[in-house]
């Protein structure tokens, strides 16, 4: 598969350079090159990784990115990374297929231009795009408890911008679908201003890009939703970046035991760096893993956080919490037809089941403070970054995730 990916990428580069007419060339160098603001209001031709079909390698091609409309912002992506949610929708096995599409939602960038009505962001601001937004006006945004904005909450099936129901990306007039309102596998992208968190200009974008989804999600799932007390026992299902961020939250909250559950034993070594103290592989047991955990913990864990997307793991995560006080939090994105089944007595026995998007953080209000946690050395981000590739090798990031290798792979747009 590697060879095939490589040849596709180099073929598309050749195709890309052929596409660059003299006019485009002059445009790119005289107008995008030196100062970003001179491209304001113009269509920008740039490179993007296009998913033409489910499960097929992305192809880097030239795409035209239209200027931002009302309440939209066009940003230059500096770094992006791959989260499992991109992979699910690219594979489109348990999700609705929508192609051609530009994936990517975990990223960091710089504002290139702003549309009408955008008053809180300016050209040059450093921003993290987020897959779910914060309009600031709806009941959810006004509630202290919710981050499920009525206008901008996650919508995995929409491929267009809200303002006019159209895409801002096209190739020779053919529209290319957006993904999660972010589409960060492109040198330039257009995002609703409510889905952009303005962050400290001092924060290194090649690191804090992973705070725009996975790490904040796992961290918030523990700190904001599960809320373990000091000395608690916490189970984390799925030891990918999201799960290990949940473990990091448990460590910060002062958990006494953090039990990691994963089908892939390669994950265990890495997980020790995140304070995971015990491991359970469901494959090693001929009875449900919730029973194994109940036995290990004298009746169940105080808190559990599910970060796999697998329905059986979700049910186990709920059933392994202690009766009377246990709280389970679902984070993984399930297959669209999955149904959660458990005996009602498990709930009557005073167990609580919760779920969260983005760790209950309000993207614009709260994300800058997560970045500050990193800047103040309260949160370690580096240990999540196991691979780096240039944009031209973006398909390698997919390969690593498919093989369950490493945690986060940073894709650098400028190499
Ligand atoms: P990842 O692929 O890096 O990690 C997932 C881990 O789960 C893997 O190590 C895998 O071996 C393990 N796993 C899979 N099935 C399992 C099972 N039945 N039992 C035990 N372990 C199992 O993925 P990630 O990027 O860390 O994302 C984790 C999940 O979180 C995904 O479902 C992703 O879509 C979801 N997610 C949700 C949100 C949200 O806001 N709710 C945000 C980001 C990601
Ligand atoms: Zn809102």
Automatic annotation (TrEMBL):
It is an enzyme of class 1 (oxidoreductase). The keyword Oxidoreductase applies. GO terms for cellular component: cytosol. Its cofactor is Zn(2+). Keywords: Cytoplasm, Metal-binding, NAD, Oxidoreductase, Zinc. Residues 241-373 form the Alcohol dehydrogenase-like C-terminal domain. Homodimer. This is alcohol dehydrogenase.
């Amino acid at each position: 598969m590697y060879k095939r990916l490589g040849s596709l990428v180099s073929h598309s580069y050749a195709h890309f350079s052929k596409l660059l007419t003299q006019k485009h060339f002059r445009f790119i160098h005289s107008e995008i090159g030196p100062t970003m603001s001179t491209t304001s209001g113009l269509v920008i031709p740039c490179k993007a990784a296009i998913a033409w079909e489910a499960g097929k390698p992305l192809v880097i091609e030239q795409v035209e990115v239209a200027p931002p409309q009302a309440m939209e912002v066009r940003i230059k992506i500096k770094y992006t990374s791959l989260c499992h949610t991109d992979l699910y929708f690219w594979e489109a096995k348990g999700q609705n297929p929508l192609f051609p599409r530009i994936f990517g939602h975990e990223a960091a960038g710089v504002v290139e231009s702003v549309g009408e009505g955008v008053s809180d962001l300016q050209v040059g601001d450093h921003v993290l795009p987020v897959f779910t937004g914060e309009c600031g006006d709806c009941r959810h945004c006004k509630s202290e408890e919710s981050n499920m904005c009525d206008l901008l909450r996650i919508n995995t099936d929409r491929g267009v911008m809200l303002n006019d129901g159209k895409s801002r990306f096209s190739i020779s007039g053919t529209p290319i679908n957006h993904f999660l309102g972010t589409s960060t596998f492109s040198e330039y992208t257009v995002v609703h201003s409510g889905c952009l968190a303005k962050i400290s200009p001092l924060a290194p974008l090649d690191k804090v890009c992973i705070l725009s989804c996975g790490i904040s999600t796992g961290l918030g799932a523990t700190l904001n939703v599960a809320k373990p007390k000091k000395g608690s026992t916490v189970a984390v299902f799925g030891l990918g970046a999201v799960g290990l961020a949940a473990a990091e939250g448990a460590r910060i909250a002062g958990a006494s035991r953090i039990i990691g559950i994963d089908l892939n034993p390669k994950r265990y070594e890495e997980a020790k760096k995140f304070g995971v103290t015990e491991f359970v592989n469901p494959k090693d047991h001929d009875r449900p893993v919730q029973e194994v955990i109940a036995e290990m913990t004298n009746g169940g864990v105080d808190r559990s956080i599910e970060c796999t997307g697998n329905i059986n793991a979700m049910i186990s995560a709920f059933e392994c919490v202690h009766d009377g006080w246990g709280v389970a939090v679902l984070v993984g994105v399930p297959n669209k037809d999955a149904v959660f089944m458990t005996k009602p007595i498990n709930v009557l026995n005073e167990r609580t089941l919760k779920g969260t998007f983005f760790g209950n953080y309000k993207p614009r209000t709260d994300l800058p403070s997560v970045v500050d946690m990193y800047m103040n050395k309260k949160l370690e981000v580096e240990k999540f970054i196991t691979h780096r590739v240039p944009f031209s090798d973006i398909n390698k990031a997919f390969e690593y995730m498919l093989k369950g290798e490493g945690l986060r792979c940073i894709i650098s747009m400028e190499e």
